[in-house]
Amino acid sequence: MSYETVYAIASGKGGVGKTTTTVNLGTALAQAGERVAIVDADLGMANLAGFVGLNPDSTTLSDVLAESASVDDATYRLAENIVAVPSGTSLDDYAETAPEQLRDVVDELRSQYDAVLLDVGAGVSHETVLPLGLADAVVVVSTPEPAAVHDSTKTLELTERAGGEVTGLVLTRTRPETDVSYEEIADQLGLPLLGTIPEDPAARESVYAGTPLVVHAPDSPASAAYRQLTADLAGVDVLNDRPDGGSESGSGSGTPPADDSDASADATRDSEAQQDDVSSAITEAEAER
C-alpha cells in the first residue's frame, strides 16, 4: 500500500462517474486484502446509502456531524474488508450538520483502515472544499467531455485553496478513437493521467444489478481498467488470482452491492464533435484560472 491513506475522489461536474470510481476502487482494494472505508462526503446530495443497500433512515454521517452519534454508529460492514459511512439524504439531515466535524471523523477512520475513500460532492461549497484539504491525495474524475474538463479546473483551484494536493486525473467513458489524446488532456490540465476507464455497457448493467462493476462483470474492459487504476494508485496487487478463477483482479471474495447513479447517466454523445472541442475548452479554462 502506498503511503497515502485518505483519498478524496472529486469532480467539478456531476454525472462523470465519481461515485462509481469510489466504489470500484474501494472494492478492488478490499479484494486485495486492504481494510477499506468508503465515506459519502457529499453532504448536500448524498446518495451512497441507496447504492450499497443501506437504509438512508439509519444512523448516518449526518448524525455524527450533528454530534448525535458516534462514527462507529454510522459505520456499516458491507463485506469482507470493506465498510461504508453513508450520509443522510434529507434536507433536515443536511441542515443540522457541522461539516467542520468531518476532520475528526477522517482522523478516526484513518487510524482504523488501510484506505479511506471520500466521495466528495461536485460544485463549489464549504462541504465540498473541506474534504479536499483533509485527504492525503485528491483524485480528479472527469469525462473527456469539454464541459467536464473545464469544470475540472475548478476542482484544482478549490484543492489548492484548501491546502490539498491533487495526485492525478482519471478519465471515464473514454473511447478508442479520439481526435485529442487523453494524455494531452491531462497535460493541459497539468496533471498526471492516472488511468482511463473505457465506455462499457457493463457499467450501466452493474447499476441495475446493484453490484460494483468489478464484481458484476469482472472480465469487462472497464473492470480491468479499474483494477489497473487501483494497482497503480495504491501500489497493491489486484491483478492476479481472481476468485472466479480468472487471471486478473483481486484476491478477496466479499464485495458490497454498490455502484453509482453517475454511471447510469446517458452516455450517448457525439464523440467526434466532443473531442474537437476539448483543446479549446481546456485553453479557455486555463486562461480563467
From TrEMBL:
Domain CobQ/CobB/MinD/ParA nucleotide binding: 8-212
Region of interest: Disordered: 237-289
UniProt-listed Pfam families: CbiA
Gene3D superfamilies: P-loop containing nucleotide triphosphate hydrolases
One BP annotation, GO: negative regulation of cell division
The keyword rRNA-binding is annotated on this UniProt entry: no
Keywords, comma-separated and alphabetical: ATP-binding, Nucleotide-binding
Binding-site residues for ATP, renumbered to this chain: K13, G14, G15, V16, G17, K18, T19, T20
Recorded GO CC terms: cytoplasmic side of plasma membrane; cytosol
SUPFAM superfamilies with a match to the protein in the record: P-loop containing nucleoside triphosphate hydrolases
GO function term, MF aspect, one: ATP binding
Protein name: Septum site-determining protein MinD
